[in-house]
Amino acid sequence: MNINHEAWEKDSTFSRFDRMCERYPDRTAVLYLGERFSYSKLKELSERFAGSLVDMGVKKGDRVMIYISNCIQWVIAFLGIQKIGAVIVPVSPIYTSFEIEYMIKDSGTETIICLDTNFCYVKEVFARTGLKRAIVTNLVDLLPFWKRYLGVLFDKIPHGKVGRDRRVYPFRSLLKHPALKSQVKLDPWKDLSYILYTGGTTGFPKGVPGNHIGMTSYVNDVTEDVAGGYLKEGEDVYIAVNPLFHIMALGLFMAIGLNKGNATLLMPVPQVDAILETIERHRARWLLGVPALYRMILENDRLDYYDLSSLTYCYCGGDVLPVEVFNRWRERFGIPIYQVYGSTEAGHVTYSRIDKEPRANTVGLPIKSRECIVVDPETLKPVPPGESGELLVTSPYTVKEYWNKPEETKYSYVKLNDKIYYRMSDFVFQDTDGQLVYVERSADIIKHKAYRVSASEVEAVLQDHPTVIGACVIGVPDLKVGERIKAIVVLKEDARGVGGAELTKWCRERLAPYKVPQYIEFRDMLPKSKVGKLLRREVRDEERRRIEKKEA
Question: What are phi and psi for residue 306, nearest 5 degrees?
Answer without folding.
Answer: -105, 140
